[in-house]
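Open question from group meeting: does this chain pack into something compact, or does most of it stay loose? Before anyone orders reagents, we agreed to write out a predicted structure and look at it together. Recording both the input and the output here so the notebook holds the full record.
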Amino acid sequence: MKTENDILLIVPPTRSYTQRLPLGLMYISSFLESKGEKNIILDFKGISNNMAYNKIKEKIIQLNRILPASPAWYLKSISFMICANSSKKNSSETIIVIGGPHASICPENFVEREIKFDYLVLGEGEITVHELIKT
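Structure tokens returned:
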């Protein structure tokens, strides 16, 4: 059963050095909110990658069933591998969705890297992520 904060939209920890806002995840978050789906964007700025990974793990452990969605760039796929594998290890019911420009253009790169994910979204993700949540 979903609770109010089952949906985590995770910005990769390797982006903690940039002050850019996670625009794609903000679009998805806004769309989900308009459909009555509460969610949390995890975006840690100004801390080390290690600290960000630990904060993400803490949040995943805190929740029973979550849907982390994250924009994926191939160059940051090590970051996704760590987050995804950690998510699955700490909560087998976790559903992992990845997307973003690189995932849309070269989805095979994420399969080749053996990143543990359940769904890879091609193109715009707002409607697709909402449909996944409803199922």
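Observations to bring back to the group:
The chain has a mean pLDDT of 77.
The chain has six helices and five strands.
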